[in-house]
Write a structure and sequence with these properties.
The protein has three domains: 228 residues, Rossmann fold (3-Layer(aba) Sandwich), CATH 3.40.50.10490; 191 residues, Rossmann fold (3-Layer(aba) Sandwich); 38 residues, Phosphoglucose isomerase, C-terminal domain. It is globular and about 80 Å long. α7 packs parallel to α11 and α13 packs across α19. The relative contact order is 0.13. By secondary structure, the chain is an alpha/beta fold. The protein contains 21 helices and 15 strands. The strands form four sheets. It has a six-stranded mixed beta sheet, with helices on both faces. β12, α14 and β13 form a beta-alpha-beta unit. It binds 6-O-phosphono-beta-D-fructofuranose (F6P). 6-O-phosphono-beta-D-fructofuranose binds next to loops.
């Protein structure tokens, strides 16, 4: 199927996307999907009906629907770790049974959610107190999936915040914890240690430092610590009472974990109603993914557009461009979701992939990016498919004129990327401005836009908890479908291990506890010079 798609691409690679609109007057409708309150437009791509058919045939040949059903029903599809993949259970609030090893996981999921609600309400209502009274600040210490999701959601849903302020510490760089804690009062701060494994070096070091910081003032700091983990024996060792420990199972991957206890900082900051609405939005997307026909199935279509651009057209990166300041952490969140999931070199059988793995994902909010890297998007030699996200309206009704500027900019960019501006068009503009052609032609060459650059747009009414839940679940399922099409296990992450191991060895060398015999001479030299610089 890949070969057929590559041959098809050869025949269409030079055509203009605009010509597809000329040929099909209904293209804007045909190549877009309304999924209730989400609208996804992929008409500004070089995909036509034949392309879409080939892509859907590819998806069918990869038994996408069977794979999806296996995931939802708790089969151990994370084969390299022998685990089920059931983050979807965390948002199944109706509680319909889901079995792992013949045990229904839902009662314990609901019980943990109730425990989170109870704890967060006690804290928010001033019944759970710190040594200095009501908790004013919550600090989430975690990294990767134990940080990016909650940090992204709390920022995205800022208009809904009615609880304490939430801060995030992730980096082992001491400047991070220093800067965050120096603004806080230990007597009214709750620290959440969020770590699935409770062994992650950065998180454990930061947790110890935070404990020491608090113990300078607070008689029993452990009372102002909570933990989120799958490893109860480790949270016990740390000394956190089980009533403030929120557990989850190994069938929730780190980068898929914000829906459960890793969302503790979200529920404390935004409240249970907002958190449940966020979960319900995601659950709606799960139902859509489970039930919609392929041609209307948003996660599948997003994935197929992704495969078309990445594996077939060979565009190696994808820009995520939220025209929504509150989604400023979405690109970083999606980097982990997509690149940790689909950045693999072998298929599920351990054989090398014979095409590229998932793309490099990067991005920034609009309009900021326009004044930074959009130059390259428009005129650079590489083609970078762009994914625009934008709300029809903002939360700040009184600033609607700002929102109209934002929206116009977003729409203008996708239009400009596709249309471009050729030499003749540039020169005719000079004619209009009564500038002599001969004087203008040299500069005109710099003012040409090649155009024909693909983009998609996801439009939503407003960034509410429910919409955000839907969007994040949409991206999760898209990553799953892309991974399945590539034959990848999207749920392990062995590629992070080597660097971790070497960092541990290097730390012992830097501490002077061992020698650097086996290190590459470049690294030895860097150690030597760093020592002279200290
Ligand atoms: O670096 C890899 C990773 O395991 C991520 O997948 C995960 O989200 C992160 O580290 C944090 O892990 P933990 O929650 O176990 O501290």
């Amino acid at each position: 199927m890949f070969d057929q798609l590559l041959r098809h691409f050869d025949t269409v690679r030079d055509r203009k996307i605009t010509s597809l609109f000329d040929q099909d007057k209904k293209r804007a409708i045909t190549f877009s999907i309304f999924q209730e309150d989400l609208f996804f437009d992929f008409s500004k791509t070089n995909i036509d009906k034949a392309t879409l058919k080939l892509l859907m045939d590819l998806a069918r040949s990869r038994r996408i629907f069977e794979a999806r059903d296996a995931m939802f029903s708790g089969e151990p599809i994370n084969t390299s770790e022998g685990r089920a993949v059931l983050h979807t259970a965390l948002r199944n609030l109706e509680g319909s049974p889901i079995y792992v090893d013949e045990i229904d996981v839902m009662p314990s999921v609901i019980q943990t959610l109730e425990k989170m609600k109870d704890f967060s309400e006690r804290l928010r209502s001033g019944h759970f107190l710190g040594q200095g009274g009501a908790i004013t600040d919550v600090v989430n210490i975690g990294i990767g999936g134990s940080d990016l999701g909650p940090a992204m959601v709390i920022k995205a849903l800022a208009p809904y915040q009615d609880g304490p302020n939430c801060h995030f510490i992730s980096n082992v760089d001491g400047s991070h914890i220093h800067d965050v804690l120096s603004g806080l009062n230990p007597e009214t701060t709750l620290i959440i240690i969020a770590s699935k494994t409770f062994t992650t070096l950065e998180t454990m070091k930061n947790a110890q430092t935070a404990y020491a910081w608090m113990s300078e003032v607070v008689n029993d700091p452990s009372l102002q610590f909570a933990a989120v983990s799958t490893a109860f024996h480790k949270t016990d060792e740390f000394g956190i009472s089980r009533d403030r420990v929120f557990g989850f199972e190994d069938w929730v991957g780190g980068r898929y974990s914000l829906w459960g206890p890793i969302g503790l900082s979200i529920i404390i900051t935004l409240g249970a109603k907002v958190f449940e609405s966020f979960l319900n939005g995601a659950h709606e997307m799960d139902n859509h993914f489970k039930n919609a026909e392929m041609v209307e199935n948003l996660p599948i279509i997003l994935a197929l557009v992704g495969v078309w651009h990445n594996q077939i057209c060979n565009y190696s990166t994808r820009a995520v461009l939220p025209y929504d300041q509150r989604l400023s952490k979405l690109p970083a969140y999606l980097q982990q979701l997509e690149m940790e999931s689909n950045g693999k070199g072998v298929n599920t059988d351990g054989r090398p992939l014979n095409f590229h793995s998932g793309p490099v994902v990067w991005g920034e909010t609009g309009t900021n990016g326009q004044h930074a890297f959009f130059q390259l998007l428009h005129q650079g030699t590489r083609i970078i498919p762009c994914e625009f996200l934008v709300a029809a309206q903002s939360h700040e009704a009184y600033l609607d004129h700002h929102h109209k500027s934002l929206l116009s900019n977003c729409l203008a960019q996708s239009e400009a990327l596709m249309l471009g501006r050729n030499f003749e068009e540039v020169c005719s503009k000079a004619d209009k401005d009564h500038i002599k052609r001969e004087e203008f032609e040299n500069q005109a060459r710099h003012r040409v836009f090649p155009g024909n650059r693909p983009s998609t747009t996801l439009l939503y009414p407003k960034l509410t908890p429910k919409i955000l839940g839907k969007i994040i679940a949409l991206y999760e399922h898209r990553v799953f479908v892309e991974g399945k099409i590539l034959g990848i296990n999207s749920f392990d992450q062995w590629g992070v291990e080597l660097g971790k191991e070497l960092a541990n060895e290097l730390e012992t060398i830097l501490l002077g506890n061992s020698e650097n015999k086996d290190l590459n001479t470049s690294t030895q030299n860097l150690i030597k010079i760093s020592k002279t610089m200290r």
